[in-house]
Write a structure and sequence with these properties.
- This protein is of the alpha+beta class and 110 residues long.
- The protein has 2 helices and 5 strands; from the N terminus they run βαββββα.
- It has a 5-stranded mixed sheet.
- The longest helix has 12 residues.
- The termini are far apart.
């Protein structure tokens, strides 16, 4: 497995046709740099597809995920970027409302 110490989410959509170089350029543009052992998440406009770019300290990995039905719970009303916990990332990739997870995975809003 690839070690991931921090997870960053870009709010603005990414064209899912973007390959590794274009996604890396977007990471540098949005986040300022691609740091080792950090993951950077992007979604398309409809939020039914997501790409994650991970810098493993040597190179970069690009992965994609698509939901066959429904959408990822992607923030729309905030600008810029957000940080996610591991629990929030796990909820996000399966399509759950990750914003509702508090500390230690405790659900705080209904």
């Amino acid at each position: 497995m690839i070690r991931v110490d921090a997870v960053w989410l870009a709010v603005e959509p990414l064209d899912m046709r973007a390959g590794t170089e274009a996604a890396l350029a977007r990471v540098v543009n949005v986040f300022g740099s691609a740091r080792p052992h950090h993951a950077y998440l992007f979604a398309n406009r409809r939020a039914n597809r997501m790409k994650v770019l991970v810098h493993d300290g040597i190179g970069v990995w690009l992965a994609a995920r698509r939901l066959n039905s429904g959408r990822f719970s992607w923030p729309r009303d905030v600008g810029g970027t957000l940080t996610l916990t591991t629990e929030q990332l796990n909820a996000l990739v399966v399509g759950l409302p990750w914003q509702r997870l508090g500390d230690a995975g405790v659900i705080t809003l209904l």
